[in-house]
Amino acid sequence: MRKLFTTLSNIWKIEDLRVRIINTLLFLLIYRIGTYVVLPGVIYSSLSNSQGKEGLVGLLNMFAGGAFSHASIFALGVMPYISASIVVQLLGIAVPYFTKLQKEGESGRNKLNQWTRYLTIGITALQAVGYVKSQLQPNQISPEINAFTFNLMSVVILTAGTLFVMWLGEKITDKGIGNGISLIIMVGIIAQLPGAFLTEFSVRTGGKGGLITFIVELIALIGVVMLTILIVQGTRKVGVQYAKRIVGNKQYGGVRQYIPLKVNAAGVMPIIFAQALMFIPAYIPQLFPSVSTNPIVMSMANYTSWAHNLLFAILIIVFTYFYTAITINPNQMADDMKKNGGFIPGVKPGRTTSEFIDGIISRITLPGSIFLAFIAIIPAFASAIGVQPIFSRYFGGTSLIILVGVVLDTLQQIESHLLMRHYDGLMKTGRITGRTATPTSAGTTPPVI
Hints:
The chain is mainly α.
């Protein structure tokens, strides 16, 4: 306990770190207040407490911190920005113009950011139209306002709200701690946790399983969190030796470094891609009522069925390999290593090095993808054995991986400030190990989200 208070005191002593933490908390407070500001013309008392709690809508509501069900000005959250970022990232592989921008350094990144912002506006406007049409019923809108005026005004406000949240995320990144967009998503997920916790507690203590069952669920949740940390932290270190160089009166190189290859280099993206495809069977009965009684369609539309989860797990494994392949380029890593006079001991530079790195990535990606698929399907099995749907989402899937990844990244940022000023780290052993280490010039670190 004394160690904890000493660490907190050291954090407060560092002025730059203290200011960054305060800025982060203030920006997040602004975001949380905005999630309760209702769209003009919406009758708040008419919104149902169960609105936006199930299926895809429930997942979006979780990422938006409840703003989706509140008909808030921040109802769409940062998900349009995430979608735009994914599209731009994929364009960087398929379109030569965007590939060229990725290699132009700071100026290229600025142009890609501009393209991302423009695309965010378009995606947000389309999603805003869909939100107004599908989520808001006529009896939830004030009769004193014209329908066309309300629709146009709501689309503009929802688009502006998402852009403001995106601006808050960028400010947190510049003036605060860690990745601002990731922190905003994390805060939205955590905001739903107390309500989910109380709901599950009241159901269990109300006669459905009892207190012992609730304690067992908490122990299982802790175990899943520990397993997720192992996956997020896991790295395979490839040793790299650099030749000695004499520049003037100084010697460079001659030291052994390493390339940290992550077991789960794709992060949460495979789950997001697979989840988007798995929502298609749920909409088939709505589009084609005649096949709604088909056993295969019914099984695939039920997210607790074995067929649904088996296909979901296979898609995650496939997308993990796909996303790892497009984010990590062994050829570029080998070329950068060769240009800087580095080599892997016992491996020839050039193509042989590239094949060696690619082989390691292929081997470590398999267990990483299997564990990722296992964590992704845990919420479905938790719901199948009686855990409330709103609480079962915290047993795995996208929300848990985002929570673990963002918390570890934030702790890493704080620890780096402490160690840089010769204070002890957050952990008793001195530092948080296994997270994103300082890569060599041949290493690349993919984004968290």
